[in-house]
């Protein structure tokens, strides 16, 4: 029963954290796919080393047991084994480092022509999002605040402390530039499924590029201790098809300017 | 805002609509309206604002040709009736315009072209603070050189609006008015 419950629970949220989750969330961007792959690559070596070291350790304990073999062998050094145990541990980090750096620099890659720019501004303790690509003056802009939904107002199926009132809507399958900053104390804009974790520092604009490969709703949380309500300022990103994004933005712009 | 939102239990799809945003809109939209009404009296600074709205240089949005005609329509309607009524008229007009394909204001086109400030290789790093600032300065240097509302400056306006947080732009505008702006204008 409990197992079934777990299974049911683990199926419910798509791109949010799951109960008893061990691995990373399903990747929605090439970057996140790269992170997951790197993790698996590195884990191959980790397991290899773990098995080898445990084998050596177990073997030593077994063969040099004080009852079985009270006088250990009097070998104090051997050139061959010393060369081997120096060379191999220095080669293994290279195998880890090469894909790691490749990924690191690809994450830093500047996208030449992003399709949209979204500004995520952290506040104590909510987020403000600005879509200003469609502005024609300094006054008007598509700006909204995103607050967490209190526990009492949650509807069935919504995740506790993960749902917000206004989601970030962005087009799938296009390059998006996120400008992350803060208005008061350092915050962080992090969405695991998108492979994004960008600190929001007051007075500084951090840029991060993402390209969401599939439509969906992605959940993230603040990842920089920012005060008492640090746990209550989640991030919800909703990736929609491009045409839906366009109609949605224009729908939100019309009531603003239409009444002007 | 959140308190208002959450007090009445809204379904998820309703929350998607960003209702509070729509409710908020008249307040944010008001200054724009005033500038549009004042255009015939032709104060130079205000003309800039209206021009940036009307000219087809607003690259993100597809705009139908004949901006002059449409601007006339705006001013006429604004003159004909008090501002509040004018707004309703305009909105009805805009729906008509959409059917005829002749948009009076660029932002009201339903078709949104996805376009934003391109990557600038003076700023290839994560830190884009200077990028935003430089674009803002470039815009104001451009208007200083080419005259207010010069169409070649509009792309810089678009860039800095895309990159800078609104709060920063407001503060800088204020500083420029007071003559305390720290940049090389």
From TrEMBL, chain A:
GO terms for molecular function: copper ion binding; cytochrome-c oxidase activity; oxidoreductase activity. Binds a copper A center. It comes from the Eukaryota. Gene3D superfamilies: 1.10.287.90, Cupredoxins - blue copper proteins. It is found in: Mitochondrion inner membrane; Mitochondrion membrane. One of its GO terms (biological process) is aerobic respiration. This is Cytochrome c oxidase subunit 2. Keywords: Copper, Electron transport, Membrane, Metal-binding, Mitochondrion, Mitochondrion inner membrane, Respiratory chain, Signal, Translocase, Transmembrane, Transmembrane helix, Transport. Residues 1-16 form the signal peptide. It is a multi-pass membrane protein. Pfam families: COX2, COX2_TM. Residues 16-111 form the Cytochrome oxidase subunit II transmembrane region profile domain. The chain crosses the membrane at residues 42-62, 83-105. One of its GO terms (cellular component) is catalytic complex.
TrEMBL record, chain B:
PANTHER family: CYTOCHROME C OXIDASE SUBUNIT 6B, CYTOCHROME C OXIDASE SUBUNIT 6B-1. This is Cytochrome c oxidase subunit 6b-1. Residues 64-86 have a biased composition (Low complexity). Residues 1-121 are annotated as: Disordered. The keyword Mitochondrion applies. Gene3D superfamilies: Cytochrome c oxidase, subunit VIb. Residues 17-37 have a biased composition (Basic and acidic residues). GO terms for cellular component: mitochondrion; respiratory chain complex IV. Keywords: Disulfide bond, Mitochondrion. It is found in: Mitochondrion. The keyword Mitochondrion applies. It comes from the Eukaryota. CDD domains: Cyt_c_Oxidase_VIb. PROSITE patterns: CHCH (PS51808).
């Amino acid at each position: 029963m409990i197992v079934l419950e777990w299974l049911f629970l683990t199926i419910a949220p798509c791109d949010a954290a799951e109960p008893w989750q061990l691995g990373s969330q399903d990747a929605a961007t090439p970057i996140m796919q790269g992170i997951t792959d790197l993790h698996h690559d590195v884990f191959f070596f980790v397991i290899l080393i773990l098995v080898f070291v445990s084998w050596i350790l177990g073997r030593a304990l077994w063969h040099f047991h004080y009852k079985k073999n009270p006088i250990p062998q009097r070998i104090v050094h051997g050139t061959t084994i010393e060369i081997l145990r120096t060379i191999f541990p220095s080669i293994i980090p290279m195998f880890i480092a090469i894909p790691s750096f490749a990924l690191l620099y690809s994450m830093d890659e500047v996208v030449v022509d992003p399709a949209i720019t979204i500004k995520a501004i952290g506040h104590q303790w909510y987020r403000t999002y600005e879509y200003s690509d469609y502005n024609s003056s300094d006054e008007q802009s598509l700006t909204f605040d995103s607050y967490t939904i209190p526990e009492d107002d949650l509807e069935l199926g919504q995740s506790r402390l993960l749902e917000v009132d206004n989601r970030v809507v962005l087009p799938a399958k296009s390059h998006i530039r996120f400008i992350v900053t803060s208005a008061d104390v350092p915050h962080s804009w992090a969405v695991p499924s998108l492979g994004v974790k960008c600190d929001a520092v007051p007075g500084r604009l951090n840029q991060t590029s993402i390209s969401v490969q599939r439509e969906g709703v992605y959940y993230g949380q603040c990842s920089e201790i920012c005060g008492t309500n640090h746990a209550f300022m989640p991030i919800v990103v909703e990736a929609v098809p491009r045409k839906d994004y366009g109609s949605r933005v224009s729908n939100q712009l019309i009531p603003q300017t239409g009444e002007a | 805002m959140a308190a208002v939102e959450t007090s009445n239990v809204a379904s998820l799809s309703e929350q998607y609509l960003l209702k509070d945003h729509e409710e908020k809109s008249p307040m944010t939209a008001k200054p724009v309206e005033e500038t549009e009404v004042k255009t015939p009296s032709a104060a130079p600074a205000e003309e800039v604002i209206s021009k940036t709205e009307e000219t087809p240089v607003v690259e993100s949005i597809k705009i139908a040709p004949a901006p002059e005609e449409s601007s006339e329509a705006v001013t006429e309607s604004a003159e004909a009736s008090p501002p509040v009524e004018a707004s309703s008229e305009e909105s009805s007009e805009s729906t008509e315009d959409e059917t005829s394909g002749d948009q009076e204001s660029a932002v009201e086109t339903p078709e949104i072209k996805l376009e934003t400030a391109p990557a600038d290789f003076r700023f290839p790093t994560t830190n884009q603070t200077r990028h935003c600032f430089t674009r803002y300065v470039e815009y104001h240097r451009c208007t200083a050189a080419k005259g207010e509302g010069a169409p070649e400056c509009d792309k810089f306006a678009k860039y800095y609006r895309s990159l800078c947080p609104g709060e920063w732009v407001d503060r800088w505008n204020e500083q420029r008015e007071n003559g305390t702006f720290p940049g090389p204008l």
